[in-house]
Amino acid sequence: MGDTQITSTAVEAVTLELDRSFTISRGSTSQATNHLVTVTDGAGRTGLGGAAPSAYYGEDAESVEAVLPELLSAVETVGDPAAGGQIERRLSEIAPDQAAARAAVSVAVHDLAARQRGEPLYRHWGLDPGRVPPTSVTVGIDDPEPMAERAREWVAAGYHALKVKLGTENDRARLAAVREAAPAASIRVDANGDWSADRAVEALSWLADLDVELLEQPVPADDHAGLARVTAAAPMPVAADESCVTARDVPAVADAVDVVVVKLMKCGGLRPAHRQMEVARAHGLDAMLGCMVETGASIAGAAHLSPLAAYADLDGALLLAADPCVGPSLEGGHIDIASVEVGTGARRR
């Protein structure tokens, strides 16, 4: 196999400061730890990926750091970065419950394989870089005026699709403040499972009055009946995030929602994400491609699947005070994978 063989791997933990405290219904954060993964071949070509674990899904920085050496050892044993199916099986055998750790390795290996082929990653799936939805950017929970100011800042920077986090006792006033600050923006609402079905159905009228484009995870993850009830009454599409973690979860929510949210960090990497999006399509559902608080290393990988999505929410790196990685441009919400020459387009600064 020669120069295409994987000859070395490495891991580095990076502490990421957010540009401001970020709050959802489950809590607040101002700092995150990601792990950057590199895989290098005999010709010196390097693939880059990143892990952004979530405690909600049972991972943290310590668990990722503990398992990554074994995952990377398995990748070195396989040796061929183009052996995607074999690598995915090995990763799943070693760390079946650690999706973020697997995702980091998945992105790095896919990046390297595409670099070896001399093509951008989206060509691996035959995708059209001209069919990429704009990414939304997030307005976290705060008092109404700071949320309105955040919305004004995003719009002034050229972003015109906003995801507004709700799940408080005063949600309507918060959303109204954002709408007043951004009258022409597309607004999506994410309650992160905080509302009951009764409360969500009651909210639909004022959500519609404020011209909400999409409602994400209004009820707890295990309340599929509640999701179905909200979707049946909603004038806008309803999406499942926490209720649909991997492709295996799609059939259970297929009759309850219109959209499934796909994230590399919850499903385990690029091949699992691609599979989840295709299963969603087979069930007549749209997909939203989402993220955690991540560096450009992993956002870049997800970006190359964005032509499969009806919606994108890949702003994780935009929430950082400083990103140690550079990926495809997201300026103005446009996910620019068309300009990527090889791999995912990600690199260290």
Walk me through what this model shows:
With 349 residues, this protein is an alpha/beta fold. It has 11 helices and 13 strands. The protein has helices at 61-78, 84-94, 99-117, 144-156, 171-181, 197-209, 224-233, 250-253, 264-267, 270-282, 296-303; strands at residues 6-24, 27-41, 46-51, 137-139, 161-165, 186-190, 212-216, 238-240, 259-262, 286-289, 311-312, 325-326, 347-348. Strands 4-5-6-7-8-9-10-11 form an 8-stranded parallel beta sheet. A 3-stranded antiparallel beta sheet has the order 1-2-3. Strands 12-13 form a two-stranded antiparallel ribbon. The longest helix has 19 residues, at 99-117. It is globular and about 65 Å long.
Task: Briefly say what this structure is.
The chain is of the alpha/beta class and 349 residues long. The chain has helices at 61-78, 84-94, 99-117, 144-156, 171-181, 197-209, 224-233, 250-253, 264-267, 270-282, 296-303, and strands spanning 6-24, 27-41, 46-51, 137-139, 161-165, 186-190, 212-216, 238-240, 259-262, 286-289, 311-312, 325-326, 347-348.
